[in-house]
């Protein structure tokens, strides 16, 4: 590879995980069950198919907590990061990470969400983890809501539909800001806040079967509004409490192309892209886009707002825009165009792009397009907080030769640098699943993203031994050269 120009000085190279997919210890040291702990495992998914995956019933949830040992519930949900975090952080430091994105499991701090006092063992765990990161000069980038809502709030209020959950989340977040104000300055509020429509239970504790007939969408938009307000309220408190802190929103960037230049295809694609921006628009501009308000009115969806909600949204917007990007999508209005099975968000096949084993269409140029679009729209610093390739890595004589992952990241880093060289302000890049963890979409371990392999199978069996993949050494070199040596 010829040497490329380096990335800007201080570029935050690192990795990303989430508590519910990495920590395990789901019922240890006072932690209460979260909505993520109740998720079943649906075998042999070829694409991210949340629909079948979230077929949750009271029986599913009861099984999960009665320890039913059948294959649907991996024995451990995670890689026991809860007990391995010092060794794992040492591995991230060996790669040279400047930042590590993690989430705080809400139900580790408030087991039912409305407890009279926070769980000190939970607070201490994250304090110890953040201190360990700082000991290695790694900045924590902390997500407050990453699918770890206390299950009790879902069962009592049907999740975010009820305004009381705003108060519970603000209380949880403010306890975190107070406790970690000396340790954490980069915060994200809601992971992929747009995904409330795709999987309302894991992101907001909303079970559509609990909505009144015909009111499921009404409830979801009400829950989303409550998340918008909660995001603004915690942003206000964080800015007041932690001088120099930066709060970001977090969007699934669903960059979508028209399958043809047929105007109907272009219109359908435009609407999908505008709908995707809506979720960041509210947190960046502090108000609902007029076209969205018009669409809600047309659909007879009336969001209940309290008197000062609009003022709160307007006065407490985010400092940067973070997003996940794995693939681009393609839309068509034509019935004869082959749609990707199992997941409506993936759209139709793009004949110009390869796909992963889970059908995700690999498109590095799409990342540059996403960066240009987001920066042009918001003129705020951007942070790529999820990008990576899920693959069925194989161990051969103790080694994992994942050249496909190196190729994936090299291409996406090159496109990121190209966007930076065209003027886009990019703060950093945390690759998703920097160590093999549980897939959110399938609960499988076999969909591996890491630079570090973890010996555990889909049913939770294994030694949990960590192994460095070929990509571990490659990423270490990229960071050491600040992107000049890829
Ligand atoms: C995003 C989530 C992450 C992660 C990622 C990869 O939606 O924010 O938690 O899971 O998807 O998806 P998966 O794990 O299903 O491969």
UniProtKB/TrEMBL annotation:
UniProt keyword terms in alphabetical order: Glycosidase, Hydrolase
Family matches, as PROSITE patterns: GLYCOSYL_HYDROL_F1_1, GLYCOSYL_HYDROL_F1_2
Alphabetized Pfam families for the sequence: Glyco_hydro_1
Top-rank taxon: Bacteria
InterPro entries: GH (IPR017853), GH_1_N_CS (IPR033132), Glyco_hydro_1 (IPR001360), Glyco_hydro_1_AS (IPR018120)
Family: Belongs to the glycosyl hydrolase 1 family.
Annotated protein name in UniProt: Family 1 glycosylhydrolase
Species whose genome carries this gene: Leclercia barmai
């Amino acid at each position: 590879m010829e040497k490329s120009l380096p990335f800007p000085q201080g570029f935050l190279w690192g990795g990303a995980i989430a508590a519910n997919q990495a920590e395990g210890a789901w019922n240890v040291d006072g932690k209460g069950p979260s909505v993520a702990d109740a998720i079943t495992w649906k075998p042999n998914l070829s694409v991210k198919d949340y629909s079948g995956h979230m077929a949750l019933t009271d029986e599913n949830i009861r099984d999960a907590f009665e320890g039913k040992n059948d294959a649907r519930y991996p024995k451990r949900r995670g890689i026991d990061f809860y007990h391995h975090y010092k060794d794992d952080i040492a591995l991230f430091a060996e790669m040279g990470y400047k930042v590590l994105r993690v989430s705080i499991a809400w139900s580790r701090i408030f087991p039912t969400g409305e407890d009279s006092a926070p769980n000190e063992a939970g607070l201490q765990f994250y304090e110890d983890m953040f201190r360990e990161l700082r000991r290695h000069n790694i900045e924590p980038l902390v997500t407050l809501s990453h699918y770890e809502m206390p299950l009790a709030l879902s069962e009592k209020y049907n999740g975010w539909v009820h305004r009381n959950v705003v108060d519970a989340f603000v209380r949880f977040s403010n306890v975190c800001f107070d406790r970690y104000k000396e340790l954490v300055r980069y915060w994200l509020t809601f992971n992929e806040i747009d995904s409330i429509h795709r999987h309302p239970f894991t992101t907001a504790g909303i079970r559509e079967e609990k909505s009144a007939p015909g009111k499921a969408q009404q409830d979801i938009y009400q829950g989303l509004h409550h998340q918008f307000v909660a995001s603004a309220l915690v942003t206000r408190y964080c800015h007041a409490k932690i001088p120099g802190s930066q709060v970001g929103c977090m969007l699934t960037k669903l960059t979508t192309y028209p399958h043809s230049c047929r105007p109907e295809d272009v219109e359908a694609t435009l609407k999908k892209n505008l709908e995707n921006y809506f979720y960041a628009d509210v947190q960046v501009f502090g108000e609902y886009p007029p076209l969205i308000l018009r669409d809600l009115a047309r659909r007879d969806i009336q969001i209940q707002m309290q008197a000062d909600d609009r003022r709160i949204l307007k006065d407490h917007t985010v400092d940067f825009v973070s997003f996940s990007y794995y693939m681009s999508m393609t839309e068509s209005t034509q019935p004869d165009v082959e749609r990707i099975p199992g997941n409506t968000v993936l759209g139709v096949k793009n004949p110009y792009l390869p796909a992963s084993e889970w059908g995700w269409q690999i498109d590095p140029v799409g990342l540059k397009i996403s960066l240009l679009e987001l920066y042009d729209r918001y003129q705020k610093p951007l942070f790529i907080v999820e990008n990576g390739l899920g693959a069925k890595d194989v161990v051969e004589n103790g080694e994992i030769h994942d050249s496909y992952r190196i190729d994936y990241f090299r291409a996406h880093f090159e496109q990121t640098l190209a966007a930076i060289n065209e003027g886009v302000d990019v703060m950093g890049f945390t690759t998703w699943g920097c160590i093999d963890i549980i897939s959110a979409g399938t609960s499988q371990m076999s969909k591996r993203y890491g630079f570090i392999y973890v010996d555990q199978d889909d049913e939770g069996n294994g030694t949990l031994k960590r192994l460095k993949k070929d990509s571990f050494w490659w990423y270490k070199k990229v960071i050491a050269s600040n992107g000049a040596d890829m």
